[in-house]
TrEMBL record:
InterPro entries: TTHB210-like (IPR033786), TTHB210-like_dom (IPR040832). The lineage of its organism: Bacteria, Bacillati, Cyanobacteriota, Cyanophyceae, Leptolyngbyales. CDD domains: TTHB210-like. Pfam families: TTHB210-like. Residues 1-26 form the signal peptide. The keyword Kinase does not apply. It comes from Leptolyngbya subtilissima DQ-A4. The keyword Electron transport does not apply. This is DUF5602 domain-containing protein. Keywords: Signal. Residues 73-120 form the TTHB210-like domain.
Amino acid sequence: MRPFQILLYSTSAALVLLSATGYSQVSDMALDSNPQPIAGMASASEDNTDPSVIEGEPQTLGNGTVRTYVALDSQNHPQEVGVTITAAALAGLPQEGTELILPLPFQAESTAIDHIAIDWRPHGHPPEPIYGDAHFDIHAYTLTPAEREAITAQGADLEKAYKTPAPEYIPAGYVMAPDSAEPRMGAHWADPTAAEFQGHPHGFDHTLIYGFYEGAIAFIEPMVSFDFLRSQQDFEGAFALPQNYAKPGLYPTRYRIAYNEADQTYTVALTDFWQP
């Protein structure tokens, strides 16, 4: 997630994200709180059988490793995609920001997610009162690596990054963060009702960000702080969805963070995929 400066306020009609350079209005569409899975597909919480888990190749992170995986239900439909991080990876991490590009197993190809990139942010990023602590950004990209390389977020390309999506493509309640376009990513959209924006002190444990480029979702990004991972706490929750998507495929409706004591691994995953 790119550094950006923000100020939030609410009105009876909408939440608005402001900066010195302008504002972005929130989508006021109602959130579909109960999207229906595709026929024959069970969510992770509904399926009583253990899903098959196919893992990607591990890559070195700190003193440990990180790898992608896809979990399938009994009919081989993806239930979730995510990353597993070994406990040893939380030691020996670089002192500078680092990105690892992690291919997904081919069994995830029916989802809209092309690959995952995990970004280690040892010094956080602005706004420091909120995102200034060490954390991981887990970008689940709908774009290919080649498509990402074409995003410069400079000159004429800024128009593509800041292109206003059609209303049905905007996740309910999300607003574009001004000046948030980042090379190889696009513009960042945040939920002003997220816990990190409420009251003082700020800071965050975990949150979910969307990215847009050329008016379409470019990535879905769970963020999790280093301290939250190290605390070995679990979390699972839904996030806001758009009414429709520009790219076909299965899309997640929830995300989770978990620690497995037996395996000494952390999981950050997008879950409960459905067919829009």
